[in-house]
Design a protein that fits this description.
Length: about 260
């Protein structure tokens, strides 16, 4: 099977049992260190629920990344810039970021927008950066998806857990998601450096948070994200104007009309 990142022909790495019923082959690329499943014929069943039942960290993750991106976006962009959360799920992250004061919008082909209704992205709206939390591991054709995102903005800020070295066996790494079958693409830093070079971008890694961008980001900005644990995001939030009340007025006006 050819690697979906660099097109190298790959051999089977191991086999995993997904959804307790499908024996699926995994292929590892020795050129770009990308790990992928065979063509995912089981996805319709896997996405019978957009958010899988085992994702107990859904809310904690959104809160954590809201804190860290409050710091990053404040230091890297202008306060009136516009942002899009791609594959935004139920809209929790968009609502959190608007509550802080960032002009965030939502987009997701497969999930209903529950928490950020009224702030769906219009293709005509310019975007300064795209965020995408826990979506890259779901991409069937990662290069195509990344290429589409780059048409929206040359800065993509995203989260995914990096592939360990050595590569774990199926039952030794929770991130394979064998129980829900939705995770089909796995990346290392080497993979993302390959992708960045292909698109003429720079790649920055901050743990499970990653950035592909045409910007040069000073190291001190990346280091500053660590200070979210000490409340730096709260200090920054006080410099911004929350959109909670303005959004309330906007939405109630729409309802009255």
């Amino acid at each position: 099977m050819k690697c979906k990142i660099c097109k190298t022909e790959n051999d089977i790495c191991f086999q995993g049992n997904l959804l307790n019923k499908y024996d699926v082959q995994y292929y590892h690329c020795k050129t770009c260190d990308f790990l992928q499943t065979e063509e995912p014929y089981w996805l319709e069943e896997a996405y019978s629920r957009p958010i899988n039942l085992s994702d107990t960290g859904y809310m904690v993750r959104n809160l954590l990344y809201s804190n860290r991106l409050t710091i990053l976006l404040y230091l890297l962009f202008e306060k009136n810039d516009t942002f899009l959360d791609f594959a935004g799920g139920y809209g929790v992250f968009v609502r959190l970021m608007r509550d802080v004061g960032f002009d965030f919008y939502w987009s997701d082909k497969y999930t209903k927008n529950l928490f950020a209704a009224g702030f769906e992205w219009d293709n005509a709206l310019g975007v300064d950066a795209v965020t995408s939390l826990e979506a890259f591991e779901h991409f069937v054709n990662p290069l195509n998806e990344i290429s589409e995102l780059l048409k929206i903005s040359k800065t993509i800020i995203f989260s995914t857990v990096l592939l360990p070295n050595p590569i774990p066996k199926p039952n030794d790494w929770w991130y394979y998601g064998l129980d829900h079958g939705q995770h089909i693409s796995f990346y290392s830093e080497h993979t993302f450096n390959y992708v960045a070079k292909k698109f003429g971008l720079k790649y920055y890694n901050i743990g499970s948070l990653h950035i592909l961008t045409d910007k040069i980001i000073p190291k001190w900005i990346l280091i500053s994200l660590r200070f979210s644990k000490f409340g730096l995001h709260k200090v920054i939030a006080r410099q911004l104007k929350s959109k909670t009340w303005d959004d309330f007025n906007k939405m109630t006006t729409k309802i009255i009309k």
